[in-house]
Amino acid sequence: MQPINTLEHIRTYNKRYVYELIQSNQPISRTSIAQMTDMSPASVTRVVARLIEKGLVEESVATASLGRGRKAVGLNISKTGAYLVGVYCSRTTVYACLIDATDTVLAEVKKEIKPGYTLNDLTYTIMVLTLELLRQKQIPKEKLRGVGIGIPGIVSFKDGIVHRSDVLGWVDVQVAKPIADMLNCEVSIENDVNACLMGERVKRGLGDDQDAVYLMVDKGLGMAMCANGQLVRGQDNSAGELDRIPVEAGTALQDHLLEKYLIARAKKVDLNISSLQDLKEAYALRLYWAVWLIDGLRSHLRTVLGMIQGLCAPYALILGGSVIECFQEMLLPDMPANAMISSDFQNNAAYGAAICAQKHSLQALFENEL
Question: Which residues in 52-135 belong to E strands, given as ranges?
């Protein structure tokens, strides 16, 4: 185990802290930064100079005067200092978006992909989509700071490995490195529900002190939690895997909540049922078996929501996925006051993956280049 270089650790922390202060309080003066951080004016000036040199921060004239007619020089995050691409991978589609350094979405693309695709297939697809996004906005490839990828399943964000993805059929696949080698930039991976939660937090303007949970009920069942601005990952990055939690009569939560199981159980009664919409229409007709299935869905969802409320007590409880979207009118009466329905999981997951890539690439920059 290598000893920690305390001085380098402090320097890295100071760079990140100053950048985040500018991000949260822009425009802000060097003097204000020194007062808020207890860093010396010389240290602040040195850190800011490096941030400006790297194109991450730019100066502007603030409205507040320093006296005698002089106006303070404010510091802002440079929109053009860095660009990030976020990707979400479903079983049949790859979604991607391009954001700037202020987390603004500039462009979005998607591409259908054959189910059962390999890592090589995904690497090539991400390269094509990334280059297309940059081409659309006429951004040179050198400005691409990083790529974040949201993948369903258990992933290790630290080493870029997908340990298990039932949706993709992958086990212990190194994803980040080959894509980083192809694009010559930082690449990070994240669980798709974690990524979606990060995207939702930014879009909804939730602060670090406003803990949030995202519950996704779709073809998979997963939960993500953000506490004090940080994702809760759990041991082996497996926090939030709810689908195999046992309930009654030898069944698990997934048997009562997931799309494919709801349709499969409905088919045992009516072979014409092939979608959630078919099941919804049967419920509207008050067919006994459809009412029984949806009542079971509501009951088990209430159990999950009660567990989340009791264990996490989040400021915001966000629900999404095909099952939630299809049956939200029936489910709303069971929702707690802090619950909110989300839509467009795919785009939010891609956006959140880009947000995660922003954090990952900045940390690498602060440690290695600044």
Answer: 57-67, 70-77, 83-89, 93-100, 105-112
List the domain range (segments joined by +) for residue 93.
83-199+348-368
- Tens-digit pLDDT profile for residues 6-51: 777 777 888 888 988 998 888 899 999 998 888 889 999 998 998 9
Q: Is 174 helix (H, G, I), strand (E, B) or coil?
A: strand
Cα separation values, 369 from 53, 156, 166, 361, 366, Å? 11, 24, 38, 11, 6
Q: Which pairs count as long-range contacts for 207-211, CB under 8 Å and 24+ apart, including other chains?
A: 210/315, 210/316, 211/312, 211/313, 211/314, 211/315, 211/316
Does a structural domain hold residue 124? yes
Q: Are residues 241 and 330 in the same domain?
A: yes
| Number of domains forming the structure of the chain | 3
Q: For 121-140, what is each residue's pLDDT tens digit?
A: 999 999 999 999 999 999 99
Asked if 48 and 13 sit in the same domain, the reply is yes
Count H helices, E strands: the chain? 13, 15
Same domain, residue pair 244 and 356? no
- C-beta atoms surrounding 224 within 10 Å: 26
Cα separation, 255 vs 245, in Å, equals 10
pLDDT band at 241 (very low <50, low <70, confident <90, very high): confident
Question: Could you give the 3-state DSSP secondary structure of residue 279?
Answer: helix
Degrees to nearest 5, angle at CA 302 with 301 and 308: 90
Residues 6 or more apart in contact with residue 258 via CB below 8 angstroms: 217, 218, 219, 220, 221, 243, 323
Please tell me whether residues 279 and 336 are part of one structural domain: yes
Does residue 106 sit in the same domain as residue 124?
A: yes
Evaluate whether residue 1 is within a structural domain.
Answer: no
Question: Starting from the edge strand earliest in sequence, which strands make up the sheet with 161-165, in order?
Answer: 154-156, 161-165, 170-174
In the 3-class helix/strand/coil scheme, how is 282-293 assigned residue by residue?
Answer: HHHCCCHHHHHH
